[in-house]
Amino acid sequence: MSLAAIHQSLNTLNDPHTGRPFADTADIDIQPGPPVQVKMTLRYASGLSVKGLEMLIASHLEAQLDLSDVKVSVDFAIGRVNLREQIEGLKSVKNIIAVASGKGGVGKSTTAVNLALALQQEGAKVGILDADIYGPSIATMLGVKAGTRPDTKDGKHFIPVMAHGLQSMSMAYLVTEKTPMVWRGPMVSGALQQLLNQTVWQDLDYLIIDMPPGTGDIQLTLSQQVPVSGSVIVTTPQDIALLDAQKGIEMFRKVNIPVLGVVENMAIHICSNCGHAEHIFGEGGGTRLATEYGVSLLESLPLDLRIREQADGGTPTVIADPDGELAAHYQLLARKTGAELALQEADSGPDISMV
Q: Which pLDDT score is estimated for 102?
């Protein structure tokens, strides 16, 4: 069996997390046998899916080429994606992903926390920054005890607060719960810059930034001064939420931050007593929004009481029940988000007209 035939066969097999050939998001090495050895190194965190992918690839090669004497191994190595080279990156952070929404109340922070934890479970080193200066909630969702203060290094830098294995930073660590942040825009932007740049992040593959809702000062600061690798838009299927989500997508596009995709939260509710499924906030809105803007629908998340209870209790779903059906949604979201980010790098090659 020629190596060219194996490569050609693999080009007809799509990565289930992108719908595109594995070559777009992976480095493939084939060594002649026997047995033939196929080593695939994905460019995004995917630790929980490697065994399934190995079986998928081996079955594909056997079916297409009648190649049964093959050893497939899948691993991952997360690279740095910074398409905004005019903005200097953070030395200890490979990728920054902003999780945003056009309006409040759509479950953005809950999604951001579970996304960060799911990326960690996939094998990545992850941090989370609570950029909602006026209403920080990440500390509560991570179960960080009230009154916790970050340690400092040389009196100038903050050491991230560890919670469930995540490196975290939030204004909630610097003020009391009852302290109102009565600040004007420039003060808020300055606080965000300090939290981001004066925190000693430790070799992160992904830094998740939980954005405040809307398209105000913090969003502008982020777009102008922070090398954001990509953004994720959280919405509900409700028409008014979708209208605001459109504004969020347009904002990121105007400042040249890639939109990795849309998360449709509270998409469906299944009654715990009778099993009846109901689309309380509407149906298919996330799909229509993603289609309209040519981005991926990263995941549709259910409306489930447990998600709210677990986040309020400081043990988010991915930690509370890592093998459960709800956590599986967030784990798929994590892999798809990482894969879409890797695609940004793959698709950013030189313009052929300029070569």
A: 78
Instruction: Report CA-CA distances (Å) from 94 to 9, 20, 29, 307.
Output: 32, 24, 24, 29
Q: What predicted TM-score, i.e. pTM, was given to this entire model?
A: 0.91
List domains and CATH numbers for the chain: 3-76 (3.30.70), 93-346 (3.40.50.300)
Count CB atoms within 10 A of the CB of residue 236. Answer: 26
Q: How many CB atoms lie within 10 A of CB 8?
A: 12
Contact 287, 264 (CB under 8 A): yes
More confident residue, 84 or 186: 84
What are the respective helix, strand and coil percentages of the chain, to the nearest 5?
A: 40, 20, 40
Least confident of 38-42, 286-290, 326-330: 286-290
Looking at residues 210-233, what average pLDDT do you find? 82
Instruction: Residue 247: count other Cβ atoms within 10 Å of its Cβ.
Output: 14
On whether the CB atoms of residues 180 and 200 are closer than 8 A, the answer is no
